[in-house]
Structure formats: C-alpha cells, structure tokens
C-alpha cells in the first residue's frame, strides 16, 4: 500500500468568506474550480449523517451554503460515525461523516452500495483535537500523561488526589473526590481515535485495544460529543473526552497532555502540528490517513482525529450527485476550511487539501 508523507496540515488564521458562484436552481452536478473555493449552487435536498465530532463545523458550513444557495437543503444528523456508515451502506444518505476511515468489512459494504465496479472513498475534511475536558472546581490547569489517562479511563485510578495524578501536577490542590468518568455510549470515531491513542502510548496500562465501541469497565456513557460535554459540564469532579470544539462551546477546561516532551495545551494550532505528521495510506482518491499519536515534540498536541466524508466516487443516484458534489466542493475550498479555526477545529491545507479537492472533483 502506497504511503505518502503529508507536508502540512496547519491552522489558518481568520474567518473564511463563503465563495459560491453561479448560484442558481440548477439540479445538475456542475461545479466551479475547487482550487479557488467556488462551487455552483445546486438545488434539491440530500441527507447525511455520522460523526458528532464535526457537528459544529457542519452546522456552519450548511448554514453558509444554504444562505447563498436558497434552493438547497442539506440535512446532517450527528448520530455517531458507526451509525453514519450504516446509514450510508443502507442507501439512506448521500454521504457519511466518520472520524475513522472505512475498515475492510465496511469498505466492501460501502462499495456494494455504490454499485458494481464502483468504490466508496474516504475524503478527509475536518481536523481536530480530542480533549480530556474536566469539571474540577479550583483547578485551572491540569496535566495528564498517557499512563494517567489510561488509568482514569480504565477505572484503575478513581480519585482525583491519586498519587499518579498528583505527581504530574506539583503544587496543584487536588480534591479527594471520586472521579466521575464519562465516555461515548454510541459507536464513535472519536472513541476509536481516543483508544488508538491510549493503545499507542500506554499499552501496559490500557489493555482494551481500539474500537468505535467503548470496551473498558466503569464510567458512564453519554451519546455524542455534545452529550459527553453536557454530562461533564453538569457533574462536578468529572472528566470526559470530546472534540475540542465542544469543550470550547461548553466553556469547559481541558487537560494539557504530556507525551514525553513536556505538557502541551490542547489548541487547534498545536493539534495541527501533530496532524502535519500524518501520512496517506489509501490509494487513488481514497485518502485514508495514518496518524502519529505517539508524537513527542514541543507544541504537538497528540490526541487528534480527522473526520472523513465518505461517499461514492461513482454511483451516487442522480438525485444526490449534483448537490453532494457541489457541497463537498465548497467544504473543501480554502475559504470554508479557513472557517474551522474559529470553532476549535483544524483546517486541511497544503498538499493534502489539493488531494482532497481532486478527490471531490472525481465524484461523478
């Protein structure tokens, strides 16, 4: 399998401006130049579902697209990556959002949905940091290591003043309270990436592998990234993992992570440093990525994800094709990508964005 190093996925400052041209009632699949961030408006309605991590980005993009293209309706349901892939495979949606690329069994099902000889492709569209958000009165800065995170989320560390937490937070007064730990209850790409991080960095302490479904004992499940954020916000002495955007929206504190090169603050810019080390492992227009969760360098926040839009390269029904391609042409524009940092995400840039735009252009 071909592996290509990605030169840069970096944060872009400032708010992008929606650039849509030829807004019309066209129902065909025409698009403008993806490289300039323009797309022809296409009227009609499509459904999509999946990743809750990208929910806030999708909300902004859909509002912008529909404002400029009033004949279009895009319905996105943030029901989790696993459910989104199932919906796509069952021909209920035009595309799925997933924080993990298609695994082999799902790839075969998605290809079959696209029709004989056709292929479903993973198109990376949103980068982000997964944070350990906490509700700990009186603690403004908390540092965690992979080993400590693994202990907390496997329920072997159950008190906030456990010596393992205290050792990496000298001078911080930690309560003797029991840790209320929240994880995803639904099939989740965020869970998949979070547990991949623990597997890669704390294998001796995290023995549950990586999966979209939560496997470790203890804790409490909440549905969706917004559900975990709401649970943490309403529960003193709690912690849960979610995409950075949801922690920011909820005004939640998020732990700094020390992968071995010092504690790193969870910011879009620091997550971008880690995402810049990603490699493309897919072939052709299938742009599945390998992430380096074990990165250990200053200013590289290590717990990251990429959300893919999964759709048919060829084989979408005519009723879905035009609007799907037009909308994804817009979301892959530099203008739309530039909007992401304002809501806690990481834009796709550079050589990878060029590949993403070419993948979207191939949809037919």
Describe what this molecule looks like in 3D.
This protein is α/β, with parallel strands linked by helices. The chain has two domains: 4-127 and 308-361, D-Maltodextrin-Binding Protein, domain 2, CATH 3.40.190.10; 129-271, Periplasmic binding protein-like II (D-Maltodextrin-Binding Protein, domain 2, 3-Layer(aba) Sandwich), CATH 3.40.190. The protein is built from twelve helices and 16 strands. It has helices at residues 55-68, 81-89, 104-114, 146-153, 163-167, 189-201, 224-233, 244-249, 268-275, 318-331, 334-338, 350-361; strands at 4-5, 44-50, 72-77, 95-98, 120-135, 143-144, 180-184, 220-222, 238-243, 253-254, 256-258, 263-264, 279-280, 289-290, 304-312, 345-346. The strands form three sheets. Strands 2, 3, 4, 5, 7, 8, 9, 10, 15 and 16 form a ten-stranded mixed beta sheet that branches. The longest helix is centred in the first third of the chain and has 14 residues, at 55-68. The chain is elongated and about 60 Å long.
The helix-strand sequence is EEHEHEHEEHHEHEHEHEEEHEEEHHEH
CA-atom Rg in angstroms: 20 Å
Query: CATH architecture of the largest domain, please?
Result: 3-Layer(aba) Sandwich
- Measured between the Cα atoms of the first and last residue, the distance is 25 Å
What is the averaged pLDDT score? 90
Q: Which percent band covers the strand fraction?
A: 15-25%
CATH fold description of the largest domain: D-Maltodextrin-Binding Protein, domain 2
Name the CATH class of the largest domain. Answer: Alpha Beta
| Low-confidence residue ranges | 1-37
Number of separate domains: 2
CATH superfamily of the largest domain: Periplasmic binding protein-like II
Largest sheet: 10 strands, mixed
Look at the helices and sheets and give the structural class. Answer: alpha/beta
């Amino acid at each position: 399998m071909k592996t290509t190093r990605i030169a840069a996925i970096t944060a872009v400052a400032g708010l992008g401006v929606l650039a849509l041209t030829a807004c019309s009632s066209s129902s065909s699949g025409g698009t403008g130049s993806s490289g300039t961030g323009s797309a022809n408006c296409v009227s009609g309605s499509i459904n999509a579902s999946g990743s809750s991590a990208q929910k806030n980005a999708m909300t902004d993009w859909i509002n912008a697209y529909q404002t400029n293209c009033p004949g279009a309706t895009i319905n996105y349901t943030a029901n989790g990556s696993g459910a989104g892939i199932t919906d796509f495979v069952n021909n209920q949606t035009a595309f799925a959002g997933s924080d993990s690329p298609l695994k082999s069994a799902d790839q075969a099902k998605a290809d079959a949905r696209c029709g004989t000889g056709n292929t479903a492709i993973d198109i990376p569209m949103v980068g982000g940091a997964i944070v350990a958000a906490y509700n700990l009165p009186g603690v403004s800065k908390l540092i965690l290591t992979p080993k400590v995170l693994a202990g907390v989320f496997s329920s072997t560390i159950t008190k906030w003043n456990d010596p393992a937490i205290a050792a990496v937070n000298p001078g911080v007064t930690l309560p003797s309270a029991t840790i209320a730990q929240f994880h995803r209850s639904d099939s989740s790409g965020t869970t998949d990436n979070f547990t991949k991080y623990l597997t890669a960095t704390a294998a001796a302490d995290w023995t549950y592998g990586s999966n979209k479904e939560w496997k470790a004992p203890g804790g409490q499940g909440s549905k969706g990234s917004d559900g975990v954020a709401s649970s943490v916000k309403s529960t003193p002495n709690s912690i849960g993992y979610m995409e950075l955007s949801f922690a920011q929206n909820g005004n939640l504190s998020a732990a700094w992570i020390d992968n071995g090169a010092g504690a790193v603050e969870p910011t879009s810019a620091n997550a971008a440093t880690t995402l810049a080390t990603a490699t493309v492992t897919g072939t052709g227009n299938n742009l599945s990525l390998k992430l380096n969760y074990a990165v250990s360098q200053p200013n590289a926040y290590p717990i990251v994800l990429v959300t893919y839009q999964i759709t048919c390269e060829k084989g979408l029904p005519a009723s879905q094709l035009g609007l799907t391609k037009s909308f994804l042409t817009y979301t892959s524009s530099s203008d739309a990508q530039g909007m992401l940092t304002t809501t806690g995400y990481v834009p796709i840039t550079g050589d990878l964005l060029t590949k993403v735009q070419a993948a979207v252009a191939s949809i037919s």
